[in-house]
Amino acid sequence: MAPSIAWKGDMPEVSWFWPTPSRFDVANITTQGYHDEVTFPMIVRGTPPATLRGVLTLSTCSNVCLLTDYPFSVKPTVQNADFAHDYARAMGKVPLRSGLTDSLEVGYRPGELVVTATRAAGWSSPGLYLDTVDDVDFAKPRLRVEGDRLQATVPVTDSWGEKAPDLLL
Predict the structure, then answer these.
(1) Pairing state of beta strands 29-33 and 22-26?
(2) Strands, E, within the chain: which ranges?
(3) Alpha-carbon distance 58 to 1, whole Å?
(4) CB-based contacts of 114: which residues, under 8 Å, 6+ apart?
(5) Of 91, 122, 137, at which residue does a domain stop?
(6) Does 71 reside within a domain?
(7) Are residues 9 and 86 both part of a single domain?
(8) Closest by Cα among 22, 15, 17 to 129
(9) Which of 89, 77, 71 is nearest to 44 (CA)?
(10) 132: domain range?
């Protein structure tokens, strides 16, 4: 499950950016997320309140993954000398919205999602990360690169690891 924030009080519009996660195994289940530390760059549009308050909900994992709520309050301060560097570094870990591929095709057959992408510049270290879908588990993709073409085959099961759900509905 993706992290979320429930803001407290009046908040202007907030754009929240997501860095590329990493893939790891927990209790023989492949999942994706962040290890040890992550910085989520945000842009607050308008005038923020004197104190930003909310509850950050995210999945924390050891032998099992559990949703954990972290209440927080932060007083916005004047940007220090390192802010521009830190912000640029954090945004550098956020995938681009467009321009990564020249073409993209997606197909589904029972038990497998197949994503085919082409990129004239080729592929150096490709990865595929999928958003969650209720009652669907996407396993670690098998990647195959041939020149400018990348094919990712993703095993798909229901959340019990059994029958493949119908993603075409």
Answers:
(1) antiparallel
(2) 4-8, 14-16, 22-26, 29-33, 42-44, 52-61, 65-74, 103-109, 112-118, 136-138, 142-146, 149-158
(3) 7
(4) 106, 107, 108, 151, 152, 153, 154
(5) 91
(6) yes
(7) yes
(8) 22
(9) 77
(10) 103-158
Angle subtended at Cα 101 by Cα 97 and Cα 102, rounded to the nearest 5 degrees: 125
Domains: count for the chain = 2
Distance CA 160, CA 135 (A): 8
Q: For residue 9, count CB atoms less than 10 angstroms from its CB and return exposed for 0-12, middle for 13-18, buried for 19 or more.
A: exposed
Mean pLDDT of 55-72: 86
Considering the domain boundaries, does residue 149 fall inside one?
A: yes
For the ranges 56-70, 73-87, 143-157, the one whose mean pLDDT is highest: 143-157
Q: Are residues 43 and 113 in the same domain?
A: no
User: Containing H/E element for 87?
Assistant: helix 83-91
Could you tell me which of 134, 141, 137 has the C-alpha nearest to residue 164?
A: 137
**32 residue type, one letter:** Q
Q: Please indicate, yes or no, if residue 168 is contained in any of the structural domains.
A: no
Can you tell me which residue has the tokens 């790891």? Answer: 24
Q: What is the model's pTM?
A: 0.70
Asked if residues 135 and 165 have their Cβ atoms less than 8 Å apart, the reply is: yes
Give the confidence band of 81 by pLDDT, cuts at 50, 70, 90.
confident
